[in-house]
Amino acid sequence: MAELADPSVLVDPANWTCPAPLRDQPIVVMGHGGGGTLSAELVEQVFTPAYGNATLAALGDSAVLDLGGARLAFSTDSYVVRPLFFPGGSLGDLAVNGTVNDLAMSGARPAHLSAAFVLEEGVEVAVVERIARALGQAAEAAGVTVVTGDTKVVEAGHGDGVYVTTAGIGLVPDGVDIRPQRARPGDAVIVSGPIGLHGVAIMSVREGLDFGVEVASDTAPLADLVAAVLAATADVHVLRDPTRGGLAASLNEIARASGTGVRLRERDVPVPEAVANACGFLGLDPLYVANEGRLVAFVPRPAADEVLAAMRAHPRGAGAVIVGECVAEHPGMVVVSTGLGGTRVVDMPLGEQLPRIC
Predict the structure, then answer these.
(1) Distance CA 131, CA 139 (A)
(2) From which domain of life does this come (predicted)?
(3) Which residue among 23, 252, 261, 292 has its CA within the 20 to 30 Å range from the CA of 93?
(4) 3-class secondary structure for the chain?
């Protein structure tokens, strides 16, 4: 037992079987891809300084560019979900809907996509074909066309089946200015429907868990829903699709970008019973679980009821609800008023609760 008395054995993180994602981590860890604090630090400390321009520094879901007199939204994303197929969707669906939704969050009408496949040697061609067909069908449903692409193959053991990267472009209507810096105290915070479904759907298949009812991913294109919101009012301040890091990460990003606070009412956040049960069983917070077919909107309070009605009239927003407001207090922070009358801080996640989620 003498070895156990050596303090270096007890406290040296290098000796842990599963090291925590330390903030000064000198190597990339899984948490750097989780959409939380580690992801933000990687972008801010490595990529933003390397590219150095104001458009990138805005860190929106998509970049809005002036090109030949038109306002063009441009976005790119990579998809590495495991498993490749899950209740409610597949890698192909995510590759379209994720990029289409990033464009829509700037108010753009998505138009065209590129699709690049990285295939691991040994993957079945039938699997690739199934993903490609799902991607094509999702593009058709979203009203976009896949106009260019690329394919690469890596040696067996140097990939994980199939990775897909999509980039997309769309047009932003005149008069629309949607970005996280525009959040203002007094804005109503609206969520378009129940949260946490995508993360729980992936987890249930990956881990072979049975929660008593099948939970299907909410993956879906949101451009038509955004168009309905803009038809109700062009003065939408912020839109975000809460994917990696869930609603918590998106709200923290908005609060920090705008220098305002966000206050949620826990009882109003739409968490399905199956998601609540799964999160309770696994010790997860639904606010941090990924979504792929939901948006959060910040709109001036006088327009909130009209926007809410427009959302609820659309199939993708039937479950929309006002969950809180933007406030001048506690700038840069998100707090939740609990059902017991207390208040808790909802911070940016450090890494990720569920790896390989999108």
Answers:
(1) 12
(2) Bacteria
(3) 252
(4) CHHHHCHHHHHCHHHCCCCCCCCCCCCCCHHHHCCCHHHHHHHHHHHHHHHCCHHHHCCCCCEEEEECCEEEEEEEEEECCCCCEECCEEHHHHHHHHHHHHHHCCCCEEEEEEEEEEEECCCCHHHHHHHHHHHHHHHHHHCCEEEEEEEEEECCCCCCCEEEEEEEEEECCCCCCCCHHHCCCCCEEEECCCCCHHHHHHHHHHHCCCCCCCCCCCCCCCHHHHHHHHHHCCCCCEEECCCCCHHHHHHHHHHHHHCCEEEEEHHHCCCCHHHHHHHHHHCCCHHHCCCCCCCEEEECHHHHHHHHHHHHCCHHHCCCEEEEEEECCCCCCEEEECCCCCEEECCCCCCCCCCCCC
Q: Encode pLDDT of 254-281 as tens digits.
A: 999 999 999 999 999 999 999 999 998 8
Give the pLDDT confidence of 87-130 residue by residue, as tens digits.
Answer: 999 999 999 999 999 999 999 999 999 999 999 999 999 999 99
Q: How confident is the model at residue 355 (pLDDT cuts 50, 70, 90)?
A: low
All structural domains of the chain with their residue ranges: 21-53, 63-171, 180-345
pTM: 0.87
Residue 6, pLDDT above cutoff 90: no
